[in-house]
């Protein structure tokens, strides 16, 4: 068995020498090790695979995580999914959010829209609101795309140790195996073992002291064209909601309990709370397919990078589920990091490019965390901010606008999904490369993640920018 101690002599050697030593002792090696095969890790794996980067995904569980969990895919993430090649499958697997039906004393008492809808074409996107896909199905689609590109997920690999040196990272698993990588990404969730091993703290707060039960259930006695909401009906009882999960026969149940409650996660416990808080009998719940519980909190990692290891997704930021922001922010972490790792690994860009991952994503995560918390506390609406189309990198060191009078589209902005002279801009931008666009208000160099890196009235200064960032 290879132990971490046996790797100590690898430190301070060149990467090539280190790989030769790794081969001699039979250790697996890769360019990027991704710990965690949820949506974050899978999206990053896809982005790296299409760039020809060797990446290995490892997952602690024997299967991908079950349950509907984060079910809302926001418009900006839908655009990302189109670029990653999974949009058609995501559209086929889900549907729009249904209108909420509020119940009182067994009667329908009114309707409620969870998200403020946008008009067609508003914010320059073809998507006007979140698309509902259960997280387990989202993961299946991403994993299939990764496999199509030649990527691999190893299940049952719990990380129990991680070390790094000037040339790479070594991760060891409970199985006794080890992997050597040039870089590693912790996408292993809010209780990230990698983050703890690195000693990176998280700063946060409890959003709500009242715990929540979440379950995927089968109920035949309710219409599937409404999100059924049952407000608190008595002393000590919280709300209960049953949302039909598009593309399945399931409902996602969410029920709130008083602080300190020991929630019963058994099928009988789920049936009991449904009977207590709705007009339905216990036997109306014909099947309980998955259960979980949590207490809503918000937390932000103190750093998103430690040497050759990066934090992404819930390992870097933990959200209240209100507003459907956590999964989407996480996937966009991966979309930001993927092209930067690819550019550095193939030698086109300086290693310093990787510093911009934390520079750009940590402020975004902090902003979105504030929004999620405000929505949970009924201090903000689920409006344009939740669609994440307006998030930008205007303050990034990668952003440069040389125009005397910047127009509506500025450096750092997401390029809108427009059609000009019969050509859809997103068709021009699709793929893993930078793109130069000449539009009515200037010249734009668009990053691989669809944001404007450089803007000018002419191409004067463009080559200097390219040389600086390694384009």
Automatic annotation (TrEMBL):
<dbReference type="InterPro" id="IPR050641">
    <property type="entry name" value="RIFMO-like"/>
</dbReference>
<dbReference type="InterPro" id="IPR036188">
    <property type="entry name" value="FAD/NAD-bd_sf"/>
</dbReference>
<keyword id="KW-0274">FAD</keyword>
<protein>
    <recommendedName>
        <fullName>FAD-binding domain-containing protein</fullName>
    </recommendedName>
</protein>
<dbReference type="Pfam" id="PF01494">
    <property type="entry name" value="FAD_binding_3"/>
</dbReference>
<keyword id="KW-0285">Flavoprotein</keyword>
<feature type="domain" description="FAD-binding">
    <location>
        <begin position="29"/>
        <end position="369"/>
    </location>
</feature>
<dbReference type="GO" id="GO:0016709">
    <property type="term" value="F:oxidoreductase activity, acting on paired donors, with incorporation or reduction of molecular oxygen, NAD(P)H as one donor, and incorporation of one atom of oxygen"/>
</dbReference>
<dbReference type="GO" id="GO:0071949">
    <property type="term" value="F:FAD binding"/>
</dbReference>
<dbReference type="InterPro" id="IPR002938">
    <property type="entry name" value="FAD-bd"/>
</dbReference>
């Amino acid at each position: 068995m290879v132990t971490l101690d046996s790797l100590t002599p690898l430190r301070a050697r060149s990467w090539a020498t280190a790989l030769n030593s790794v081969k001699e002792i039979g250790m697996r090696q890769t360019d990027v090790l991704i710990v965690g095969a949820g949506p974050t890790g899978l999206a990053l794996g896809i982005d790296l695979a299409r760039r020809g980067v060797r990446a290995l995904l490892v997952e602690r569980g024997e299967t991908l995580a079950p349950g509907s969990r984060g079910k809302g895919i926001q418009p900006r993430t839908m655009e990302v999914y189109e670029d990653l090649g999974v949009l058609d499958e995501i559209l086929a697997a889900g549907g729009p959010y249904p209108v909420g039906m509020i119940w009182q004393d067994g009667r329908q008492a009114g309707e409620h829209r969870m998200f403020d809808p946008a008009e067609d074409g508003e914010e320059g996107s073809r998507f006007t609101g979140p698309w509902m896909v259960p997280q387990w199905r989202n993961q299946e689609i991403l994993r299939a795309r990764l496999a199509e590109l030649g990527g691999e997920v190893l299940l049952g690999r719990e990380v129990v140790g991680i070390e790094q040196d000037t040339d790479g990272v070594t991760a060891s698993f409970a199985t006794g195996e080890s992997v050597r990588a040039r870089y590693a990404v912790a996408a292993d969730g809010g209780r990230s073992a990698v983050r703890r091993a690195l000693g990176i703290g998280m700063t946060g707060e409890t959003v709500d002291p009242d715990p929540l039960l979440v379950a995927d259930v089968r109920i035949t006695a309710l219409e599937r064209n409404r999100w059924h909401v049952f407000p608190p009906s008595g002393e000590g009882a919280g709300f209960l909601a049953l949302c039909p999960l598009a593309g399945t026969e399931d409902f996602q149940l969410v029920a709130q309990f008083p602080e300190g409650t020991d929630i019963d996660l058994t099928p009988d416990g789920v049936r009991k709370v449904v009977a207590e808080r709705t007009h339905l009998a216990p036997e109306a719940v014909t099947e309980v397919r998955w259960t979980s519980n949590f207490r809503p909190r918000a937390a932000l990692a103190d750093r998103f990078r430690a040497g050759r290891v990066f934090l992404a997704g819930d390992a870097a930021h933990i959200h209240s589920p209100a507003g459907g922001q956590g999964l989407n922010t996480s996937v966009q972490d991966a979309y930001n990091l993927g092209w930067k790792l690819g550019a550095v690994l193939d030698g086109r860009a300086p290693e310093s490019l990787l510093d911009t991952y934390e520079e750009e994503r940590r402020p975004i995560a902090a902003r979105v965390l504030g929004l999620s918390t405000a929505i949970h506390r009924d201090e903000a609406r689920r409006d344009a901010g939740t669609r994440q189309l307006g998030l930008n990198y205007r303050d990034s060191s990668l952003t440069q606008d040389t125009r005397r009078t910047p127009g509506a589209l500025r450096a750092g902005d997401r390029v809108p999904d427009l059609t000009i002279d019969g050509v859809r801009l997103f068709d021009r931008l699709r793929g893993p490369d930078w793109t130069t666009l000449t539009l009515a208000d200037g010249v734009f160099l668009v990053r691989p993640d669809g944001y404007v890196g450089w803007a000018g009235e002419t191409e004067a200064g463009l080559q200097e920018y390219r040389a600086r960032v390694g384009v």
